[in-house]
Amino acid sequence: MFRRLHEPANAVTIQIDGSPVRAAPGDSVAAALLATGNPVCRQSPASGADRAPFCMIGACFECLMEIDGVPNRQACLVPVREGMQVRRQARPTPVGAVASPADKVAS
């Protein structure tokens, strides 16, 4: 879908879900994510559908990710820096939800 026109000369390395990703200094976390070819950053709380960066200007909140241990950061507004730890956010469990038998661990 997205690809870089050229590889950055002075790239920084960030970790996305434990995998190293090279990014250009000045890139946003969302831009680095899009360049990986797997743009999914979170799941919708309502349906669990995969979500990806959309507006890239901080207006839509589709790019929420956990960045350096802080959840719900707008990845399009956060510039990359060397060693940054980024995680995709899974669908939150609804309040009052009851676990299904499949979710229980056999004892």
Q: Would you count the extended β strands for me? A: 7
**Binned strand content:** 15-25%
Task: State the distance separating the first and last CA atoms.
Answer: 45 Å
Mean pLDDT: 88
Taking pLDDT < 50 over at least 5 consecutive residues as the criterion, the unreliable ranges are 102-107
Q: Name the overall outline.
A: elongated
Task: Indicate the CATH class.
Answer: Alpha Beta
What percent of the residues sit in helical stretches (DSSP H or I)?
Answer: under 10%
Task: Explain this structure.
The chain is mainly β. It has one domain (12-91): 2Fe-2S iron-sulphur cluster binding domain, sarcosine oxidase, alpha subunit, N-terminal domain (Ubiquitin-like (UB roll), Roll). Helices cover 7% and strands 24% of the residues. The strands form two sheets. A five-stranded mixed sheet has the order 2-1-7-5-6, covered by helices on one side. A hairpin with a 6-residue loop joins strand 3 and strand 4. The termini are far apart. 21% of the residues are buried. Residues 102-107 have low confidence and may be disordered.
